[in-house]
């Protein structure tokens, strides 16, 4: 039973049937390129693969010169959709429970491609704008971080949030990755433990000072991976820890990371060991003001479609973080991709259709004035 536009549903089903996990997006990219070329446009693939390690670059397609805004989705899924069997319910589509459905982000891709095809088929005048489809969003965001758009692009709308259509992310935290390596000195733990420097002991003492969990309303911290040691009778000379710090405030992230760095350096020195603390921004926070052109335009579009426009804050990163870091004011739109990355993924017919309607209103030349 299909409760939404048959062509839109069919397009979604074609896309989820293409297996394209992070780093293996080429089959999806090839599909998109063929689709856009068939509509008379000239998509191209950039050279981001040299940075991302994917088997393809990002797909970019200027429409009517490319304009000053971009509509963007990512091509990868976090888990394989190979062998997906969609199940049609009264109000939604699910898989049969043995695989993910692929709603994240094939729902977004479907909405954009369907809206563009409908406009071309029905001779609907289009604004100048750019389409972009990125790689490696689910793993590193390196696709969007490596994306090079025309300098004329000032605004962006990403179709990728699990939130229902009508809800959009205008505010997101940022996150730094922590990679901590502790060097001690190996020795036999029974014969000569005093000759060793125990890297695990250093790690434990330093971790006692680590600000685990929610530091304040805007900041969280976590160590999620620990590995080290070689045998129970050897004083361990190496431990590696990986974690993160997230916050809406760049200064809080920087300050907390430097405090963590100090804990580990001081503790390692106390026992005669050393610590290397790597601090790298995975993605930076952003806020799109309600007074901004992008915010107001989106609210107008959603209101015109009878949707209740709701702004939300996200504790996750997305391609919208990457674009905002480039100075492109970007909002992440809810597509209704529920339970992402699990075998319980699903999407309401209503959300799939509303995403396509929002995309159509954004690209139509007679929609909302800038």
Tell me about this structure.
The protein has helices at residues 6-16, 26-38, 49-52, 103-121, 142-146, 199-207, 250-271, 293-304, 319-325, 349-363; strands at residues 44-45, 59-63, 69-74, 86-88, 92-95, 129-134, 155-161, 167-172, 174-183, 213-216, 219-228, 238-247, 274-283, 286-287, 310-314, 329-334, 346-348. It is elongated and about 80 Å long. Strands 1, 2, 3, 6, 7, 8, 14, 15 and 16 form a 9-stranded mixed beta sheet that branches. Strands 10-11-12-9-13 form a 5-stranded antiparallel beta sheet. The chain has a 3-stranded antiparallel beta sheet with strand order 4-5-17. The longest helix is centred in the last third of the chain and has 22 residues, at 250-271. The chain is α+β, with helices and mostly antiparallel strands. Helix 1 (6-16) packs across helix 4 (103-121), helix 4 (103-121) crosses helix 10 and helix 6 crosses helix 7. It contains 10 helices and 17 strands.
Summarize the structure.
The protein is α+β, with helices and mostly antiparallel strands and 370 residues long. 32% of the residues lie in helices and 27% in strands.
SSE arrangement:
Blueprint: H1 6-16, H2 26-38, E1 44-45, H3 49-52, E2 59-63, E3 69-74, E4 86-88, E5 92-95, H4 103-121, E6 129-134, H5 142-146, E7 155-161, E8 167-172, E9 174-183, H6 199-207, E10 213-216, E11 219-228, E12 238-247, H7 250-271, E13 274-283, E14 286-287, H8 293-304, E15 310-314, H9 319-325, E16 329-334, E17 346-348, H10 349-363
Parallel strand pairs: 3-6, 3-7, 7-16, 8-15
Antiparallel strand pairs: 1-2, 2-6, 4-5, 5-17, 8-14, 8-16, 9-12, 9-13, 10-11, 11-12
Helix pairs in contact: 1-4, 4-10, 6-7
